[in-house]
Amino acid sequence: MNDDVTTFHYDRMVENALRGVLRDALRVVETQGGLPGEHHFYITFDTTRSGVVMPDRLRAQHPQDMTIVLQNQFWDLQVFEEALEVTLSFNRKRERLRVPFAAVTAFADPHASFGLQFQTEMTMDGDGEDMDEDVPADWDMLVGGGEGNEDHGADTRPGADSGEDGAKVIALDAFRKKQ
């Protein structure tokens, strides 16, 4: 009998698979040269994570997290295995960003009523328990949910169920080990 104990980290496996959904969606946009129809993406990321490359002035304005929108005005999207790079306009000045997929905390395509929320290693406390995340105040609105709009979207915060309206939201808390 083998004395080695193998631990399956299913939560990490699921997290990596779901980040693959984001990567695949971005690759479609990269290949087609833009988003089809009325689709648009909101991508929220942790600006403090290793590998995030952005101008210092933007980092000063967004010291914790930042949400970018890929819709009409973005250029030279490049999707790599571990990161995305894109040029966006900020105050009429084009700036290049590099965002590792490990830094992404949320992804939404409001046109498809689809959203994903990710955990990052930095959202775990010393005991490995989830800490409350700083979800952007307008996150519910990104997929059409929130106060007064219950019939148009879903609450996408961790642990939220998909509503009867058919919005597809994946919250990984359901897969996390409870202690």
List keywords for this structure.
SH3 type barrels, SspB-like_sf, 18% helix, five-stranded mixed sheet, three-stranded antiparallel sheet, SspB, alpha+beta, globular, 179 residues
The CATH homologous superfamily name equals SspB-like
Question: Got a strand count?
Answer: 8
Radius of gyration: 17 Å
CATH class identity:
Mainly Beta
Give the strand content: 25-35%
Unreliable stretches covering 5 or more consecutive residues:
122-170
Q: Span between N and C termini?
A: 29 Å
In which range does the helix fraction lie?
10-25%
* Structural class estimated from helices and strands: alpha+beta
Largest sheet, strands/sense/barrel: 5 strands, mixed
Silhouette: globular
In the sheet with the most strands, the strands line up as 2-1-6-7-8
CATH architecture: Roll
Task: Give me the CATH fold name.
Answer: SH3 type barrels
Organism: Roseospira visakhapatnamensis
InterPro entries: SspB, SspB-like_sf
Protein name: Stringent starvation protein B
Pfam family, one: SspB
Describe this structure in words.
- This is Stringent starvation protein B.
- Residues 140-166 are annotated as: Disordered.
- It holds the Pfam family SspB.
- InterPro entries: SspB, SspB-like_sf.
- It comes from Roseospira visakhapatnamensis.
- The protein has 179 residues and is α+β, with helices and mostly antiparallel strands.
- The protein has a single domain, classed as SH3 type barrels (Roll), CATH 2.30.30.
- It is built from 3 helices and 8 strands; from the N terminus they run H-E-H-E-E-E-E-E-E-H-E.
- It has helices at 10-32, 56-61, 139-142, and strands at 41-46, 65-70, 74-79, 83-90, 93-100, 104-109, 114-117, 168-171.
- Strands 2-1-6-7-8 form a 5-stranded mixed sheet, covered by helices on one side. A 3-stranded antiparallel sheet has the order 3-4-5.
- The longest helix has 23 residues, at 10-32.
- The chain is globular, with a radius of gyration of 17 Å.
- It starts with 9 loop residues before the first helix and ends in an 8-residue tail after the last strand.
- The relative contact order is 0.16.
- The model is unreliable at 122-170 (pLDDT under 50).
